[in-house]
Design goal:
The chain has helices spanning 28-42, 61-66, 133-154, 177-180, 188-199, 205-209, 225-228, 241-244, 293-311, 320-336, 344-353; strands spanning 8-9, 16-24, 46-50, 69-74, 82-87, 92-96, 109-114, 117-123, 159-164, 203-204, 218-219, 231-232, 235-239, 247-252, 268-273, 279-281, 284-286. It is globular and about 45 Å long. The chain has 354 residues and is α+β, with helices and mostly antiparallel strands. The longest helix has 22 residues, at 133-154. It is built from eleven helices and 17 strands.
Length: 354
Amino acid sequence: MLWAGHRHWNRNGLGQVMRIATFNINGIKARLPRLLEWLDETRPDIACLQEIKTSDETFPAKDIEAAGYGVIWHGQKGFNGVAILARGETPVEVRRGLEGEPEDEHSRYLEADVKGVRVASIYLPNGNPQPGPKFDYKLRWMKRLRARAAEIWAEEVPAILAGDYNVIPRDDDVYSVKAMADDALMQPESRAAYRRLLADGWTDALRSRHPAGGVWTYWDYQMNAWPRDAGFRIDHLLLSPAAADRLVDAQVDKAFRGREKASDHAPTWVELRGGGRAVWVGSRRALPTPSSPRMRGSISRLRTALRAWEMGSRFRGKDEKGWISECRLMRHVARQSDIAKFKHSCIMAAWQIC
């Protein structure tokens, strides 16, 4: 198997899976009992935290390690801050912060390799009030994130960009479009920047499992939002093609938002299956990793095209004729290459879609 460590047994009979979660804890000192409670009850293999709101020196590493998790963190006193936890091992840090603005001292990005997966914990700027310098900073930050995401995507490794994006992607991701119309989380520029990430080949895991929307990850403390279920979705897990092919499920631990002294966010997670053979996931087939190195780029493009087609979006701005040409090209490449591990039925399904 590709991944080691604790795994969950999938109820759909697909074997062992690994759970990767994101959780805006909204102050790790104030919510430490809730965090430890959640870790003990759900046992995620990897957990990305945001808004830890503590300096590096005061981060409660010993408490987390006592719970069985290795941890790395990027703290900031009183604001922001991100961390990555791994059950039974310590994540290997890859990057701390994003390039592009040397003067940016906000602790909003941490990236690591853990259990065979590249994971980034992201706390994207809120952007309010808009318009203004805070909103401009948000858009610049998203541009910098996209640049780093492209570098990770090009490595063709299983990768997850997990965190609080502070973006409501679509109207069905919010309880009331009118109530949030002027908020930075729903502005056309914010949404367009998020869509560009998806168009680059990243899969919105929660949306892929809940295409009709209506799933929230955040409920404000004010205006009786939790009892009224007046929430919205801003916590996202974006999957690279190699990770998306192993997607089993994606859900929200909503009940934890209702506990005493809870964060205003609920933990959100994906489950991925490892291994090198094709397995059924719902009505879609998860594809094995091609054995031939020269196939990987082409196959990744095909997978991305198919996912974007299913979501009803456009692949890198191509019109319909461009889509057909792309799929025909991928079919030709696959037929001319060693496809022993790339199932013929999948190639034919791709051709039928095109």
